[in-house]
Write a structure and sequence with these properties.
single chain; about 650 residues; alpha+beta; Rossmann fold; 2 domains; 13 helices; 33 strands; disordered N terminus
Length: about 650
């Protein structure tokens, strides 16, 4: 099982905020277990870290666990096939979406399958605690779970801690005839048990110090040392919707008639006020009555472990960014009960089962090493159901570049690595005077601080701090839509047969050229108040691309784009993307930044630094497709290319 803690992809001007926060299997088919006659193996249920060397012996028979048994449905292979066909412009089935009810009837589990699975679980001594159209949840002791799933549960060391996991791949009786897709929860690495039904207040206010640029290059840091042989501008105060709409070719479109959903954990208690206040201050259209909705759980859990208050800023960013770029789109926020996989899966399922929107923005994730095939299968099944209904999912690609600095291993993020979602990478964006697009680099930052005498930058250009996630998956096969476009050297980096490469498309993410948001926060005196700050991260890129897709859907007369990757790659090379490179002007680029040391005022002093652009760990934005920005960012003509006369 992965870490179970999704991480938020937001980077503020204070550097990377604490992470809160993302494999493709087309479904994991049951395989007959040769060493377990009469059973069908549930592939991927034994974690890679559960090795013989790490084995510390049997788990206690009486230890309690909670698990979910996911249904394969009546035609898992048919679901994957139709999800592909309905999303492929070259297919005769393209755009022939099903309703949520039709999808469930054609591909979901039958009443007989559900009843059989529940009967099997109960007969093994497990207690059924809930049933949805996707899974049965159960509780019980280790002994009952071992009986049900035909395995033994042992204790294993993982790092400095010990966790429970299956000693061999779990299985289900073959009498169920493949009704079970997978089971999650047999391992507990880690198990989060803190419960709190009350959300905490907003976190302490964060503000940016000046000087600022109002557009790129408007305020040159003439008194600071040169960088790369010339004077550099101060960082942007925070781009607005007007500037982003111009940069990404919004034209006359506003997203009218299009529904966008946003998933995150928890819920900001002041989102309606903040969104309306922000729109009024920055020239965005006023939110109309009923334009912003929230779908929230009955209770919240793990609020301390998940740093619940930190998610308020994520929701605020996502909501305000979507509205800034697509001001007429209908927005539904779907809050998860926690940052755990089970709860996030439930939120995604709510969108699909009730078809709450055609476009879904998701600014969270985790590293691929923390994902396991059982959970990948559960996520992909939701994404496939979404695809057959005409729903597209957009996931931020991560904020730690190739992940080496953060995790010690070069890897991509998940669920952005799924070949059933659109992975959104990040850029540094220069919008000039009169809202004119100038250029973009791949987002990757190196930081050096001002020397004590103010005459130089210490150890320039400094160390890597953050950057757009990207690279080649180690677990997900190369999807058909990337073939012939993604360079072979990238696709085969981990496997000669070719793997999924992330991202697919990109947009503004660099906090040094970031977006201004407004949020009610806890002020230094302990009171609550609305304040504004600049923010970035691929948490910004994902809702911006989701909003651009809303514009594109409006341009095609409201017909859902659905799973967008086939359409996105079909437009490659047709002049509708900014081909993002790391040195768009032919030389290295940087901006100057001044920050409050304490994060909100000058009483603690100021810190001056230089931030180099286009320095994304080992990843590079180059001409053509690359693993920082994908096919590039939307240019003038992208939205209009969806127009159907």
């Amino acid at each position: 099982m992965r870490s179970n803690r999704a991480k938020l992809r937001t980077v503020s001007m204070a550097a990377t905020l604490p992470m809160i926060a993302g494999a493709l299997a087309l479904g994991i088919p049951a395989a007959h277990a040769a060493d377990n006659p009469g059973r069908d193996a549930l592939a991927g249920t034994k974690p890679a870290w559960a090795t013989a060397k790490a084995d510390k012996g049997d788990a206690s028979n009486g230890a309690q666990l909670s698990a979910r048994v996911y249904f394969a449905g009546k035609d898992a292979a048919g679901l994957a096939a139709y999800a592909k066909a309905v999303s492929d412009p070259s297919s005769a089935a393209y755009g022939k979406y099903l309703s949520a009810k039709q999808a469930a009837a054609r591909y979901g589990a039958t009443k007989a399958q559900v009843a059989a699975v529940k009967s099997w679980l109960r007969s093994s001594g497990l207690k059924v605690t809930g049933t949805t159209q996707h899974y049965v949840s159960v509780t019980g002791d280790v002994a009952a779970a071992e009986k049900a799933f035909g395995t033994q549960l042992h204790n294993y060391t993982k790092g400095s801690k010990t966790y429970r996991a299956p000693a061999k791949t779990a299985s289900a009786p073959d009498s169920l005839k493949g009704a079970v897709l997978t089971v999650t929860g047999l391992d507990n690495a880690p198990h989060k048990s803190t419960h709190n039904d009350q959300l905490p207040p907003p976190e302490t206010v964060f503000r940016n110090s000046g000087p600022f640029s109002s557009y790129y290059g408007s305020n040159i840091a003439s008194t600071l040392p040169d960088a790369y042989g010339s004077k550099i501008p101060y960082a942007i105060q925070g781009y607005t919707g007007k500037q982003l709409r111009a940069a990404y070719g919004a034209g006359k479109y506003t997203g009218k008639g299009v529904r966008v959903a946003i998933t995150d954990a928890y819920a900001s208690p002041s989102i309606a006020f903040d969104a309306q206040t922000y729109a009024g201050k920055h020239g965005d259209a006023k939110w109309s009555t009923g334009q912003l909705h929230q779908v929230l759980p009955k209770k919240y859990t793990n609020t301390k472990d998940c740093s619940a208050a930190g998610w308020y800023g994520e929701e605020t960013l996502d909501v305000e960014a979507v509205h800034a770029v697509a001001p007429a789109a209908d927005v539904t926020y779907v809050g998860s009960a926690s940052c755990m996989d089970n709860d996030l899966l439930d939120s995604l399922s709510k969108v699909v089962d009730n078809h709450l929107a055609d476009i879904v923005s998701n600014s969270w994730g985790d590293i691929e090493a923390n994902q396991t095939p059982d959970l990948a299968a559960a996520y992909d099944q939701v994404f496939q159901f979404g695809a057959v209904e005409g729903i597209g999912f957009y996931f931020s690609s991560g904020d730690d570049g190739d992940q080496v600095a953060k995790s010690g291993t070069k890897q991509v993020d998940t669920p952005a690595n799924s070949s059933w979602v659109t992975a959104v990478g990040g850029t540094s964006l220069a919008v000039g005077q009169d809202d004119k697009y100038q250029w973009e680099t791949g987002w990757g930052t190196e930081k050096a601080v001002l020397s004590a005498d103010g005459k130089s930058w210490t150890n320039f250009p400094g160390a890597f701090t953050s950057g757009a996630g990207g690279g080649t998956s180690k677990t997900v096969a190369q999807p058909y839509y990337q073939k012939g476009i993604v360079p072979n050297a990238l696709a085969t980096a981990n496997n000669a047969a070719g793997n999924r490469v992330v991202p697919d498309i990109s947009a503004i993410a660099d906090p040094n050229t970031g977006f201004k948001v407004g949020q009610t926060q806890t002020l230094p005196d302990g009171t609550l108040g609305y304040d504004e700050y600049r923010i970035g991260g691929t948490s910004l890129a994902a809702p911006v691309i989701a909003a651009v897709q809303a514009l594109a859907q409006e341009a095609r007369g409201g017909k859902a784009i659905g799973f967008a990757n086939p359409e996105i790659y079909a437009r490659y090379g047709k002049g509708v993307y900014h081909d993002v490179v790391d040195k768009p002007t032919g030389k290295d680029l940087a901006v100057a930044r001044v920050d409050f040391v304490n994060g909100y005022d000058a009483t603690g002093g100021l810190a001056t630094s230089v931030r180099s652009l286009g320095k994304d760990s080992s990843l590079s934005a180059v001409k053509g497709y690359d693993d920082v920005t994908g096919v590039g960012s939307p240019a003038n003509g992208y939205v209009e290319s969806y127009h159907k006369p």
